[in-house]
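Handout, section B. The chain below has 404 residues.
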Amino acid sequence: MFGTFRSPNAVYFGAGQRAMLGRVVASFGNRALICTDERLAGDPVFRAMVEDVEAAGVHVAVFGRTIADLPLGCIDEAVAEARAARPDSIVAIGGGSCLDLAKATALVYTHGGRPQDYYGEFKVPGAVLPVIAVPTTSGTGSEVTPVAVLSDPDKTLKVGISDPRLIPAVAICDPELTLTCPPSLTAVAGADALTHGIESFTAIRRDEGANLPLERVFVGKNIISDHHALEAIRLISGALEGAVADGSRLDLRARLMYGAMLAGHAFANAGNAAAHALQYPVGALTHTAHGIGVAALMPYVMRYNLPACRDDYARIAAAMGVPPEDDTAAMAEAGIGAVASLFAAVGIPRTLAELGFEEEKIDWAAEQAMTAARLVHNNPVPLGVEDMKAILRAAHHGDPALLS
């Protein structure tokens, strides 16, 4: 039995929990920078949260210019705002880009240099300014993860900074904040979260050396991540379609947010794999949302990994409510089918061609995907360039049989 669990110092979950934000922020000092985006900055609920923090005796500066996919210039602007505000903590209120911005800003504000200095794993030299993460979507799980993903104009693909010191100090997860998410965003974010659960649950299982968690941010499949991943799969698969159809149902919103947070915990420790590696070049070429790309790819990646994952896929099927079969192989097939059917039901394209991905780009995308070493090496079945091409070809044509 082997497990690794890295997490915020505190996670507060539940409807209305945003009301504690002021007291939480005040516990870190009397100055705070709040990172959000332009839309949320003008929202009455956001303004009420800022007023709550101010009422707790905290001087607040708001950076409301977060840009999706987090370009380097956005981080530079936020760091400049932090240097002017001299905060004791940084509060992130918003989706994944807002949360990642707060992490990257805390890092550069604390240790100096540029974000580029910290690309990769275990490059953060020490503790960073505390981050309080308040997600408003149920998708990335960034409120509990050690990762900040950003866009560098000198890089073709997105890049990441991965270090346990980037895990927020506190996460406040209030599903009421997701009630205004439109159906399309709910679907894409939920699909992203489900892929986190699936890829964490089926990640490679490594030798359980005593130093493994000190040598890798993402240690692979383990008993603790499995617990979180499987429960995330159960919750998200049971709530996603209903929440997309009727976003006013707080019970479904709560299950989605809790599932996304658990999936974040799972991949924060186990890590993701081939679907995420392949999405980076696909997303760069098609300019489509991360969640759409990983979800479109996931059934084909599952098909490729089937020989190594039959037992795991059977357990995924059971978690998704698939009627039991006596045969593990049949249940595994049903698990792949259940994932594909759920994604189709919430509007995720079945093929990469529907995303605008062109067949002649398969070779280039496969080669680029192989550069995401932490993801490639985390896959339960070894991956080479030709394997990546095969997955992309099957996903482009919508033909899993190409992987048989």
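Note. The two ends are 33 Å apart (CA to CA). Compare this with the example in section A.
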